[in-house]
Amino acid sequence: MNRTKIEWVKNPDGTQGFTWNPITGCLNHVNGLCKGGGFPCYAYRLANGRLNQRYLANTELFLREGDWPANALTDPFYPRFWPERLQEITNKLRRWGKNRIVHTHEPRGVFVCDMSDLFGIGIPEKWTRRILEKMQYAEQDRFYLLTKQPQNLIKFSPFPDNCWVGVTATNLAALRSALVGLAVIKAKVKYLSFEPLLGGIDIHSPYNIEYSDIQWLIIGAQTRPTVFPKIEWVQEIVEASRQAGIPYFLKDNLAPILPDDKLYWKLGYENGQFTDAKPRQEMPKV
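-> structure tokens emitted (286 positions)
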């Protein structure tokens, strides 16, 4: 588990949270789902870059469980399970008696599988269930789950109360699927991530978030290479969020295109003093 620089991954006290990767890799990219603007996601690039040899060295599950395609051992981004990482969640829990769990750490905010997709193509269901079970025991922590495969969420519903369940929607077609997938599950917090925002999204009728149970929106630009969305696309989502009373989180990478308006900027406050304005970054109140 590592401290993360992803802005929206917060601990419950508002400090920066963590990432946790008991699974790496997925097969979403085979269908082009992670190639926004024609470029592969950062997890795919890292797996084929500086993490290449580390991922390729994880062959135990392939050899033990068998029934893997020929390219599994040579593709660093083929799904891999890291069972030893499950203990990173539970090693700060202490069991008293038969059923009582005592937490020995401050509550954490943890983004699960930012180097994969917990519900993605090629991820065995039993892996996902083992990870969800671990999260349920760590009830003091908050877990951010994010997928590009919303149709798979229903198999794991209802989710533990400490799980925030989100879907990435980069365009209107993805938004349609996201709203359908989230509508049929039970989760404490449901959210949408428009990152990267690659096209205009008519977030009103017939896809009006005001009549959904979405509780949070994240908006961001494409990075590496940087491609900014049109400001009109951002404005439409922000206005819909404001009207629906849904908190929205504007990533720092949008700063160069944001208009000078309080809907998009908020003055920071640290150590008793006001700091430079930052993009408005709201969190759900739970």
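The first strand starts at residue 2 and ends at 3.
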